[in-house]
Amino acid sequence: MTNDIIDLAARVGQALQAKGLLLATAESCTGGGVAQAITEIAGSTGWFDCGFITYSNASKTELLDVPAALIAQMGTVSEEVAAAMATGALACSNAHVALSTTGIAGPTGAVPGKPVGTVCFGWARGESTHTERLVFAGDRRSVREQTVVHALQGLLRFIE
User: Domains, the chain, ranges and CATH?
Assistant: First the structure.
């Protein structure tokens, strides 16, 4: 974990704490990388509630209440599923704000219209949900690292 990511996680923590918000994460392609960055920060217990690592489609449905029909219709790597993951993390935790990541880190897994490096993000708070879809370049490690950074940067923008 780079110092840049840890510094970014610290900034996220300061912003959440200043607003009295608790965070939950719902991660697929990052495998808990966002939660790991957050828990590197001493005192994160004051602003981090929990993280869900929902790698399989079944776990997305069972743990986050993402409708199986939505996954079947839109695909796991879609803004719709990212939104449902984030809102599911809110509903299944004590958090006030949630973020989600779902993507294709590679080197395999590409499908038509969704190349390796495709990642969808969700950020949710109350009735507000924001999503993005990006395509990152690089190997599996690089895609996952870029995803963690973007998820945290996006959260900062979303709560401010």
Answer: 3-159 (3.90.950.20)
